[in-house]
Amino acid sequence: MYCYLFNFKGANTFLKWEYTYLGIFLVIFAIIIFLTDKFMFYTAFAFLLGAITSIVSGYIGMYVATRANVRVTFKAASISNEGQALKEAFNVAFRGGCVMGFCLVSLALAILTFLIIGYISILNPTDPEQYRHMFEFIAGYGLGGSTVALFCRVGGGIYTKAADVGADLVGKNELGLEEDSPKNPATIADNVGDNVGDIAGMGSDLFGSFAESTCAALVVSGTSVGLTDGANFLWPLVLSASGILVCIVTAFFATHVMTVTEKEKIENTLKWQLIISTILLTPTIVALSLLGLPETFTFVTGTGADQIVFESGSWGIMICSLSGLYAGLIIGWFTDYFTSNAHAPTQSLAKACKSGAAINIIQGLALGYLSCIVPILAIAGIITH
Amino acid sequence: MSDLSFGFAYTFILASCVVGFIFGMWNWWIVNNIIIL
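Above: the input entities. Below: the structure tokens describing the complete assembly.
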């Protein structure tokens, strides 16, 4: 219980100072954006809105995680039946993750939608060129999100690693204590690092990725007459919104259908989350593409001799979206294969550790390189296609 | 084959956001109501 209070207080203090310095940088950066062009007020406003949403996302993550952590520990320790304890603890941990995931995506999508509604009513775009300019202003939202994500991920990441290594050096190597031993005061710093780097930083990062990819899709749609005619450019946002509904159904499987009663099932249940969401999103993408997009449309970029005209249609967008969806599944699957202790690569690395530190480092490095091959091939294959 | 309308798109997006947010807060309510002794 005391550890939880220390963790929360430490994470809160770290984020308070991180966001203070970050706030100064964001204001200066917004002023620079504002001064570059007379229309850049819109970009600067979107930038600040994205940055604030990212900060809020990170803070929600940290706030929920520190409270969920102690409740997971309580459930795991207070129930005598091992299977029941695992089930209860897993459900609390999973629900804790759901809070940040769902609140963050819903908040980010709603704010982006209101930003689009506001800019459309102020700028009143009529042709693709005006739409493209408007979406470039809105892209500031993604820039704000990813700027905060960069600071939080790197700042929190360096802190968490320094605290982890420091705690291990003093506790494990010098005093012979176990990993994360409550007898080691440095464990608090290590846990604070995990909360600010891997949770608050991850929250901001997640928001940054979502905002950037959605804004990029909006900018691309601004180059097409067919997509800026009516509300077709909102298709990426509609897809993200349907993703929220699909994920609610998927989350239900983890807490009510594939319940965790033994340690071996934890990994499996989480892996199935990826598979179920992919399966459920497949018909959703097909339906949304065929029913919500024009059959054919043209993208036009550049002017004069540099002009590039590209024909596409609802089928093209559908195939692109499905390719991205299944590439995500393949990458997730292979990442799990190379990092889980249930599979051969990690087991062989553990065996290699017995031969000494040098073999451990070399094989670990080789395994890291090897794990990149399939994700790179998947991404490159899709882009080429 | 038909196009998206503003009415449907805005309603669907914002309704999904509300549902997602409520689901997130419902999970928070469950987690937060666990009494730690």
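Note for the figure: Chain B has a mean pLDDT of 88.
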